[in-house]
Specification:
Blueprint lengths: L3 H10 L1 H7 L16 E2 L2 E2 H4 L1 H4 L9 H5 L14 H14 L1
Antiparallel strand pairs: 1-2
Length: 95
């Protein structure tokens, strides 16, 4: 018989592979990382790579990001023109 903890260790070994092909769908958005989880085709850290480099917090949920009155609060300023252009796209897609 397999020891109880070894099953979950084996499952966790597959997490990176699974996360590359899995896609999230969110309700409240409280358990989905806006940067790291794969939703809307790809992780946003890849989709908005330049903007991601200005993020103050890289482990933030979609829900917490949407609670901000001004989304620019999520980023270090000033930012490059390329990053700001990505921010405008980010904002359009998120809202």
């Amino acid at each position: 018989m397999t020891p109880p903890g070894s099953f979950w260790r084996d499952v966790l070994k597959l997490q990176d592979t699974f996360s590359d092909i899995a896609c999230c769908h969110f309700g409240k958005g409280d358990t989905i990382s806006i940067w790291m989880d794969n939703f809307m085709d790809q992780p946003w850290s890849s989709r908005f790579e330049n903007l991601h480099s200005y993020a103050k917090v890289t482990n933030i949920s979609v829900q917490k990001a949407l609670q901000r009155v001004d989304l620019l609060e999520l980023f270090r300023l000033p930012m490059s023109k390329v990053a700001y252009s990505e921010f405008l796209d980010f904002k359009d897609v998120l809202l």
